[in-house]
């Protein structure tokens, strides 16, 4: 698609076909970007071991300092104190001994570098989002691509650990493709088609995380030092092949974006989508659709008749719903609602990824400890989760999110996560021994008396006996493990995607004048106690809290895992998700049931 000369989007007569083309451009570029990002994931252990071997004996290096801090962390969580660890497990009634995986310090160092990247994204995401509101999505995205290319160029010649960390810092501060892609899709889709468009972001993630690591591992075997030995003096190293592939991918992506991508943050696109939204609303009214599907639609004549009435006081309930009489609000009330809803969504995003990413990080530890999984078996399990997640996103989320509702789909995904983590907890230890030990501890260490089989506690023990993984065959435990992985795949396909859709829909609440007020004069902005939020900034803040959860979750989960074992760790994770489901039911907004308009917008429609 050849963009107009001014790189802006089309006129108000934009068609669904054109929106589909732009969404396809964004999806293709994002897929290439995430492929380049995932190339390094399987290389972390060997790459860090390479730096450890090459800098062996240098106690003044950054690597030596980092390993020293990680040793202190391992001592803190009792990872190196095997006697204390076994005693704790006996007190808890856990039969399995936790085998310390080989090169644990390297594994933890890789996790720490991953957390560093997420922390930098927490800092940079709101800034990048704000810049995209001011200078345009396309321009800021291209600037972000330049930063990514610089980061990969540093990695290409990073023969020292310091240079490698520098490349990750540059990448963490400049990566903006994901959030800008979300903002662009939000720019060119109506609320009714928002979830369908944003599901493409999740599909790109699922595909890239399935294919990218395999590509990275393959090209890591192509030693460029052997091909270009003269470049070794400039820092070329055995893993530069994957870095070179990342540079090639990012270069192709940058050229593709420069040639194909139009600017979506423009007045012409806003008017075109507004017109499309009006057409969709007319079609729904003609077809007799329910009001729940009438998302931010122009209000009917009855609403217009109320425009002359006095503005009513906002009555927002805890679950994010508003009484029908209060749906026509003034600008400041709508902005206040936006701030409230976005804060709730950001917190749930943080809490979900804190729990989910932490459990996900320790999953490979568990399969190594309990099943002695090889690298191929680990890859098969993770590949199963990635492929199933992409199929669910493409076949279910894109098609049904608009009908089912984003909030309900988020809750479904969280319930799947609780069940999945519960299944993994079941296969990881002796549940009945743990319960007996806990009950004995609660009784002050006295001996537990035998309960009647007909009593509630007796029935509970019988149930635990049936669910006790110690009595299962290895095949049964494997089936339960994959059942848990299925739950995690459902979660991966639904929760973050639909939370992002909700955040994007909240940005669209209010009138057209409100959405433009952020670019108005200072006098106009002072009329609002709460300043209007640009879509790029709002989605950047939302994403930043998720990245903070990704940074903190693995650290907390790893500490818990090595302290109390996988049974307790995953059991707490499952219960934590249950609590999050209950909280989300109470505080998440049902944006599709809030066709909120300002009175100014209602009056404008009647003129």
Automatic annotation (TrEMBL):
Range of residues in the leader sequence: none
Domain of life assignment: Eukaryota
Chief localisation class: membrane
InterPro entries in the cross-refs: MFS, MFS_dom, MFS_trans_sf, Sugar_transporter_CS
Subcellular location: Membrane
PROSITE patterns: MFS (PS50850), SUGAR_TRANSPORT_1 (PS00216)
Annotated TM spans: 25-44, 106-128, 140-158, 198-219, 239-259, 345-368, 380-397, 409-427, 560-583
Gene Ontology CC annotation, any one: membrane
Recorded topology in the membrane: Multi-pass membrane protein
Record's protein name: Major facilitator superfamily (MFS) profile domain-containing protein
Organism: Modicella reniformis
Lineage: Eukaryota, Fungi, Fungi incertae sedis, Mucoromycota, Mortierellomycotina
